Amino acid sequence: MLRRWFRGGMTRAAAVAAEDRRAAAASSARRFCAGSRPVIRWIKGDGLDDNVTRAAIGQATRLFGTTVDYCLCTRGIDAPRARDILSWAAAPVEWWPVSEHDNPVLAERLTDADCPPARFGYWWKWFPERVRPEGPEWILDGDMVITGKPAWFDRWVSGQDPVRVAQDDRSAVDSIHGRYARHVDPVKKLYSGLVSLPPRLRYMPALTAVLAKQPLRVGHDGCKDMDEQGVVAATFQQFDAIPIPLSEFPFARAFEDFLDYGLQGDQGRGWGFHFGNAFVRENPHFERLTAAGVIFSQPEPSVHERFDWLGGYGQWGIPGWSMPSDNARNVVTRAQAFAGKSVLELGTSRGRVTAMLAAVGCKVTTVDHQDRGAAVNLAGLDVEVVVDDAVHFLNTTTRTFDLVICDLHGNSPADWQQYAAPLLSRLAVGGTMIISNAALAQIPEWEEETGVPWFLDKLPAGWSHELDTSTVPGIAIVRRP
Fold first, then answer.
1. Measured between alpha carbons, how far is 342 from 361 in angstroms, rounded to an integer?
2. Could you please report the per-residue DSSP string of 219-234?
3. What are the pLDDT digits (tens) for 174-216?
4. Which end of the chain is more exposed for a tag (fewer CB within 10 A), N or C?
5. What is the pLDDT of residue 317?
6. What is the CATH number of domain 35-291?
7. Which residues contact 293 (CB under 8 A, 6 or more apart)?
């Protein structure tokens, strides 16, 4: 059974590492964009609704787990604030700070209307056009919270569902669609709150066609004008979009004392809420539904929970690409004794362990052969992100570290013959090394990965070690006298 993982005599771990490098070399954009897994995406701007977006992501990641992937697009939000918004996530989330370069076609149309990026406003929702073109995708405002599964959820996940767009059947078209009201179907009355897309659908050609028919007025202000709503409605009705009625996803506007379920009223089929105006003021409906337990809430998460959004499974990796959660907690718990000291982490991934190390006060240098978003995700923390091959870094730096944490792909004796001498030379006198995958060979699929025991048997005289197999795949703690 094991031999099917061999490629040209490589162990399974070596094959995983080779595939990792191949994928990195082949990717011309974000790795998150590849593949066909379904994704839920929110857009969040510099408003007052951080608490709503935090709850939305916390609730969705618990409701759907790893059935889907998640993406938070932001504009005008720095890394510490983004990390706080994402701190309730229970599954990996891609953080994507957007710019005008993420949708150059739309940016050009806005610029032609004398609308600079500082005033793109509502239009940022469509930067980029798709975060994963080959997969099903939901695009939501940051003040929309999903609380259940719609009846058509499984069809959407499988890529078999048509285009669906939120509907506001109560408001007058003239009042919510700006100068493009005449182009909007007065029966469907679509609005741009939630858009559900099948794989491979590209809507920008249709959107630019609407703008070609009626260009944006010179002096357009995307932060105040309602034209975006009308353009989006006119765009998606060209795809025969099925309306998502307010009876399923009602408005919970801050300035109204009722939930707006539209003309149909509450049919008992609701699966979310749109907390309108939370961007600019406190929303009493959000507070009330949170207190009632309808909207997810939790106490301040632990240092381990706070960075679950930086996990490395699902779209972000396969087994072997990221340290298992229990093992990561074990490592970071031990690393707390090194607060204020220099720590080297080999095997950064998206930065989860790095962030936890920084949160407990370590001064971290983290090394990976590619930047999987760590530099952005970790901005503002006491972290140095180095993009380099681990062995090359070890052989070329002259620095030593009080704590070295090693979580590399290859763990065969042949791999550790390359790691051994460089690792030993980088550990400071009196320092500690924590090595993941110490008991990896006990798992049948990884039985060739005996490099850590090989290394431990060859430690210099006076060095000591202990094994901790309480968490899979185990850790080794090495101490230099």
1. 10
2. T--TTT--HHHHHHHH
3. 889 999 999 999 999 999 999 999 999 999 999 999 999 999 9
4. N
5. 52
6. 3.90.550
7. none
